[in-house]
């Protein structure tokens, strides 16, 4: 007899939840996985905008058949708690794109947790995550790229950057690679920093107010997550509205 | 237009300006020359209000207002333009977007109507042509990938668009080849040589002054003006060196 047990609430000891807001998560637990299966050659895209005062936790499980393409864009900017977990499996020649921006300037926890499994040959995946964090906000990216034995020709990239507006904000970034194939190209870059003071002065010396100068630089920073998206303009506009309200 | 009286300033607690006094009237072009470390760039940054350049004594009056009490963007709106020796690269922010926002921020601060997109592009096209700069370059991110000469010409296009009363140009001639030097020189004349405007050219060399004839030449050494004269002073400096002329 099979009995399906609801998984118990994670603790800090669970790596995938180490930086999470467990109190907020409890009310949403268990998070039901949302399955998406793309057949060979199929293409699809999804835009997730998590905003407002309600806590959000979602888990997407995506299976990409041969040559299938999936483009996921995320704007994670709720004021309570926002967790987006993505588990993607790529067959031969499949392509996965994640472009995500996390904007938090109060005390919220925002997190993106990904597992990208390259099981077929010649598949490509690209993850671009940009976080802007102020106040006591916490922004986290935990991303694992797993390249299976025989998944030769894999091309995987993780580009993760966070901008701290206040010394009280926290950014966590943990890009991981797990490679069991020989002929692969995997790049990952990760940086946490503050707005360039020289750049801010340069913009202000031309007449922009301090808030305008900040906003312009952050707008450009966040836009990197949405390059090439079908909804690029509307995503940038939505991110701008959040930044303007926060600055 | 500009009156600097007994100005003292420090950078990282090190005194750089030690009693600088200078009066610039409308319609005049002044050249400030001097050896390395004399305080030339510091003078520009102090006038522009760059953080980290601390005024410890003296006054600066611009158009009857206390310049030192104003924030950098307020100085810009009041009609001051600082040309940077090393123009700053701002990835992701296009020149056109930046300059339109900067100009409109200044106009709003002065109680004027913001310029429409069409009117701004017409103005930008006109000023870019003056500096023989392609409009396509202005659509690219601010100074990113520009050569030294292109950055300086872009600075002059900015000056043309923002149309300041007083321009303080810090080594605009450095990094320019002979043709670019002439183009920048002609640009400065076209934009700034007017009865109600003034220019302070900060430079090491006579060569820019062949194109932009100064009314007055000052030698800055040890943080203050040690000698002033007409254009002939620049020629004497070029011929005999700072040591001989200042001694």
Description:
The complex is a heterodimer of chains A (247) and B (247). By secondary structure, chain A is of the alpha/beta class. Chain A has four helices and twelve strands; from the N terminus they run H-E-E-E-E-E-E-E-E-E-E-E-E-H-H-H. Chain A has helices at 22-28, 197-205, 210-223, 232-246, and strands spanning 33-38, 43-50, 56-64, 69-76, 81-90, 95-104, 109-118, 124-133, 138-147, 154-164, 170-179, 184-193. In chain A, the strands form two sheets. Chain A has a six-stranded parallel sheet with strand order 1-3-5-7-9-11. A six-stranded parallel sheet of chain A has the order 2-4-6-8-10-12, covered by helices on one side. In chain A, helix 2 (197-205) packs across helix 3 and helix 3 packs antiparallel against helix 4. Chain A is globular, with a radius of gyration of 19 Å. The model of chain A has no long low-confidence stretch (mean pLDDT 95). By secondary structure, chain B is an alpha/beta fold. The longest helix of chain B has 16 residues, at 231-246. The two termini of chain B are 31 Å apart. Chain B is globular and about 55 Å long. Chain A binds chain B through residues 196-199, 201-210, 212-213, 216-217, 219-221, 223-224, and chain B through 48-51, 71-73, 75-77, 82, 84, 87-93, 97-99, 101-103, 105-106, 109, 141, 158, 162.
Explain the layout of strands and helices.
The complex is a heterodimer of chains A (247) and B (247).
Chain A: H1 22-28, E1 33-38, E2 43-50, E3 56-64, E4 69-76, E5 81-90, E6 95-104, E7 109-118, E8 124-133, E9 138-147, E10 154-164, E11 170-179, E12 184-193, H2 197-205, H3 210-223, H4 232-246
Parallel strand pairs in A: 1-3, 2-4, 3-5, 4-6, 5-7, 6-8, 7-9, 8-10, 9-11, 10-12
Chain B: E1 2-11, E2 14-24, E3 29-33, H1 40-48, E4 53-62, E5 65-66, H2 72-77, E6 80-83, E7 90-94, H3 95-109, H4 117-130, H5 135-138, E8 141-142, H6 148-162, E9 166-170, H7 178-192, E10 198-202, E11 216-221, E12 224-229, H8 231-246
Parallel strand pairs in B: 3-10, 3-11, 6-9, 9-10
Antiparallel strand pairs in B: 1-2, 1-4, 4-5, 7-8, 11-12
Helix pairs in contact in B: 4-6, 6-7
